[in-house]
Amino acid sequence: MRFFLILFFISFLEANHLSNSSSEYLREHANNPIDWYPWSNEAFLKAKKENKLIFLSIGYSTCHWCHVMKRESFENEKIASILNRYYVSIKVDKEEMPHIDSKYQSALIKIRKIRNGWPLSVILTPNREILYIATYIPPHKAYGIEGLDTLLIRLAKLYKNNPKRAEKIIKANRKLLSKKEEKIIPDTAIEKAFIEKMSKRFDEIYKGFDLRPKYPLASHLSLLFDIYLLTKDKRAKEICFQTLKAMAKGGIYDQIEGGFFRYSTHPDWIIPHFEKMLYTQAKLIPLYTKAYLFTNNPLYKKVVIETVKESIKRFQKDNLFYSASSAESQGMEGGYFVYKFNEVFKALKKNGFNEKEIKDITQFLDITPVGNFKDGYSNPQTNTNLKKPKRLKEALDILKKIRENREYPFIDKKIITSWNAMMIKALFKASLIDSNFKNIAFKSLEKLIETIYKKDTLYHQFVKGYPLSIKAYFEDYAFLIDALIEAYENSYKKRYLSFAKKLAKEAIKKFYDKNENEWYLDFGEIRAKSVYQDRYYPAPLSIFLNDLLTIANLSYDREMQEESKNLIKKQKNKILSNLTASPTALKALLRVKYEDIVIKSNRENIFKNKIKIAKIKYPFILTNTQNTNLFIACRTNTCFAFDKNLSKIIKSIEN
Known about the structure:
Layout lengths: L1 H14 L8 H5 L7 E3 L2 H10 L2 E7 L4 H11 L2 H10 E7 L4 H15 L7 E5 L5 E5 L13 H14 L1 H16 L11 H12 L16 H14 L2 H16 L13 E2 L7 E2 L2 E2 H18 L2 H18 E2 L2 E2 L2 E2 L2 E2 L2 E2 L5 E2 H10 L4 H10 L12 E2 L13 H13 L6 E2 L2 E2 H14 L5 H17 E2 L2 E2 L2 E2 L11 H16 L4 H18 E2 L4 E2 L20 H15 L3 H13 L1 H5 L6 H12 L2 E5 L1 H6 L1 H5 L6 E5 L5 E4 L4 E5 L2 H9 L1
Parallel strand pairs: 1-3, 2-3, 23-24
Antiparallel strand pairs: 2-4, 4-5, 6-7, 8-11, 9-10, 11-16, 12-13, 14-15, 17-20, 18-19, 21-22, 23-25, 25-26
Helix pairs in contact: 5-7, 7-8, 9-10, 10-11, 10-24, 12-13, 12-17, 17-18, 17-19, 19-20, 19-21, 20-21, 21-22, 21-24
């Protein structure tokens, strides 16, 4: 019997179709006893030919719960045999195919009314209609969730034996997918409505939004601050800065080495999900930079510098950035990052700290004998009710040394175009605090273009040892254009703006359907619609509309100005239909309403006053060069202030 089980297991190892994939995530599943296919015509033709349901599993290599589901279910021979008998199983790396992930994450929210996430599990008909959709599913019934062992058989039998009932479920799901939800708000009330809605979501006790899980929501915080600058609404300012402070002092921020974890599992920010995503750092660095410029709070400066340095240390290689690091290390989630009280006590004692100093430091960092995480472990956070200990910096260095003897979590080494572009823009922004970051940004941008732009073709990702094969999606165009614009405003080299303009025109041709007035994330057979909802980073379409406005205003292209405004106005109802989910798109609407202001002078004047200009209390400021010693402030169609004294120009703008 044992011999036959071994043969059974080996036969499926040989049948798995993932081993040659460039995706680390897919290769992790190459030795599962499941007959996995990548997303491919071969898989869909097989499902149709055999009239089998499709089990679609979407995740990524640094996802903790993806690893859990792999161990519990995808390495489970009983569940594998069910999948192999009744289903065609497909694995998708959401970082490699973000358009597919976006399509089904949107479906999850509409059908199940739950927060999206990974792993994403979808059961489809051979025609790719949704029969069932969920995130993590346990192998057996647990947490009030039906297990895969019964769910898979139940749905397979339903599809085969009761097609009318199956069709009824499919039709109900189809109806939910087409349903429009929020009421449209007049654009005159955008600012007030956004503040009111975010105030309702605001956690007055621990700060941030919603309860659990609690995400940083950088785009929302950024828009709140912009609205404060436009309207002087103190509530918007309070929500923004109280949240930034709470995150910077909480466990979602790595107090020992710097950098942000992906989200907090509880309302109090203490225990995070320990993944570090490149995009999380890239979106929070500019926000904390902006916060520092307007407050001079050293906490915000510290966060920016530490986060940039940690991102470079962990993720940068040959001027490019890897995508993410896993939550797991040493066989447990957070294993690299958390501490036992006794190990900290002994290490500090060994380095000359007395018991009073150790008590002050461990209490300040919330490292306790009981622990704030699990099994007596503590995740360091800053106790805001206690005075900062005198030898804290020395103690933090000792805690760093403890980590040196641990294995850092797995890092996914794929180079994603859009995420690298986000990080490059973040480095340019951070250079307002440390000018050295600007040179790093330029080197990274040049290397990125050299790597992923070949023969007039932009690609989505680069994985060492594999050829460029996946052409760029909408998000790659949008974020790379954004980085090129930032490079232009930090150099005034026309080639950056010209390249941005070229890519923008290309993106419109590829991803915009004029007849349907719809934007798409890809130009292939999926045709996943691009939406305005910001998820873990801004929606590509929202970034792109902001890109178009910026390019038009920096290049003084009147035709493009009108075209970009009209494109934004055409999308107004869609943007306003889901107000709190679309802050980056709302910013584009507000820019049309209030107008950008371009400050011009000679290069020397602009560069000398970069920080002063960045502190202007108006959110929509661009800079450009002109051969004059004057400072000139211009709106879209007219220049309204001229002076040698920049302070007078700023006063005119703020008034």
